[in-house]
Amino acid sequence: xxxxxxxxxxxxxxxxxxxxxxxxxxxxxxxxxxxxxxxxxxxxxxxxxxxxxxxxxxxxxxxxxxxxxxxxxxxxxxxxxxxxxxxxxxxxxxxxxxxxxxxxxxxxxxxxxxxxxxxxxxxxxxxxxxxxxxxxxxxxxxxxxxxxxxxxxxxxxxxxxxxxxxxxxxxxxxxxxxxxxxxxxxxxxxxxxxxxxxxxxxxxxxxxxxxxxxxxxxxxxxxxxxxxxxxxxxxxxxxxxxxxxxxxxxxxxxxxxxxxxxxxxxxxxxxxxxxxxxxxxxxxxxxxxxxxxxxxxxxxxxxxxxxxxxxxxxxxxxxxxxxxxxxxxxxxxxxxxxxxxxxxxxxxxxxxxxxxxxxxxxxxxxxxxxxxxxxxxxxxxxxxxxxxxxxxxx
Amino acid sequence: xxxxxxxxxxxxxxxxxxxxxxxxxxxxxxxxxxxxxxxxxxxxxxxxxxxxxxxxxxxxxxxxxxxxxxxxxxxxxxxxxxxxxxxxxxxxxxxxxxxxxxxxxxxxxxxxxxxxxxxxxxxxxxxxxxxxxxxxxxxxxxxxxxxxxxxxxxxxxxxxxxxxxxxxxxxxxxxxxxxxxxxxxxxxxxxxxxxxxxxxxxxxxxxxxxxxxxxxxxxxxxxxxxxxxxxxxxxxxxx
Lengths: 394, 239
Fold this sequence. Notes:
The complex is a heterodimer.
Chain A (H helix, E strand, L loop, with lengths): L1 H8 L4 H8 L1 H32 L1 H5 L4 E5 L14 H8 L3 E15 L6 E9 L9 H8 L6 E5 L7 H10 L2 E5 L2 E9 L9 E6 H7 L10 E6 L4 H14 L5 E5 H15 L1 H31 L1 H9 L4 H38 L7 H27 L8
Chain B lengths: L8 E12 L6 E12 L3 E5 L6 H8 L7 E6 L2 E2 L5 H8 L2 E4 L11 H10 L9 H11 L15 H13 L5 E5 L7 H18 L2 E5 L11 E6 L2 E7 H5 L1
Helix pairs in contact in B: 3-4, 3-5, 4-5
């Protein structure tokens, strides 16, 4: 390694040799970088899960455009809108079909496990084609049977017995707020931070469970278009927004609605803020640890550096040594940090039913952050050397 | 300004003064030093502690900025010289310090290589051979891959000497080079320097208290209270 670095740098890799000479300091420094890395990875992982799970529902929708009430911020706090907008939308050229969709939430206490499950209930007309996933869509037709619903098998804390009963008997009867509900099928979607799972039912069943809601006030309207290319959707969105009174409803393409949801979850919820803050804290912790290690190292080698300065080495040479140490630390800390984080992602996934994925972009981002963190600390650490005359350093 | 030819003299100072501190606390430690050193000359600078020896050494060796007066080192005026010029001048000098100041993470041969590396990539061709030969010269041919912690005080100081020699400097500045050495190795180090002066024409400027090595000097300069009080050929002094 030393030989390789010597050839690469055209000089002895003093920074590298220095790091490995003092093993205790090396372990402390690598541990620090690793710790900062794990902190950043975990926060980004949760932030990513928050973003990803908040739009799991959107991904199942068979909609090119969604119409929402004008105060719409997030699916979490969705308000209703007048049904008449649906008929107006149908008049627009290029619109093929529209589907009224109803959302609400139910807290259901499982009598078997005494566990409270926070379901999002979604009601759609049984004859409509509201889902992209054919396995869901096929089951929706059967929901015309009164008081039936489909349950998400990935619901957090869902008693596996329920799913088994549905599989073996084709039906599982539960009671929700004093009303009977027959679970007749399952689908797979996943929990989000604020919702444990989803129940899909017909609009008629939805009205049974939420007597205050009626077919006149859907939560969203799915708009299906004749051609779904982005070029053809944008004019329709514009046309819709022109037709509707500004203060009432607005239209988004499905992709836009995903962006709106992401933005709300990461910027406007406390959870989003906490995780973003955690990333910053992780970065600062790493910065401080690396700075501490590097300044101590500069301090310890001051006499040697002064000697090098006395025999004619330039400032650039010293910055090079520190930068070399910083980058070595970044690389040495990043790899174990990444491995531990991947293991923790797996653990978190099984514990919280949140999808913890490690996209390449995150690896690159965190590595760049780590290098910036180490290099920044290193640059500050060399400052002490830059203005001193060599004679003062003795 | 000295008018003496820079071919004959490796070092010329005139009216060199230096003070430490600011305002009322200012203390002048060097007064009006006029001093010359020829090529190939071994000059020993003596004097009680606090007499300004080390200050003079650091001034003429480009380690401290000149405040007042002139210093011509190898034909280059140091007074008012830029950091860039000072750095380039330092590369033509060899330094041996009281403390060896070896880098603890580098082996003997790597430490010596540092004296060569400062001259750029061309100097590094066959560096192992070059550095090995110099270490052999100081009697450490069998200690090439030892870390400083594995060497005795004398051996470390000899590595430092090798580091100073490896770049073939025009002048070697040595501050108490024998302080940490026993009589035999101290003698060996100074004999080595003497040989360099005679064979290569290297000028040697040495600050020392060690009377055992005075016989190797061409000239002995004595300082007291920031002034040169005696400057004599060594042979006269010895008598």
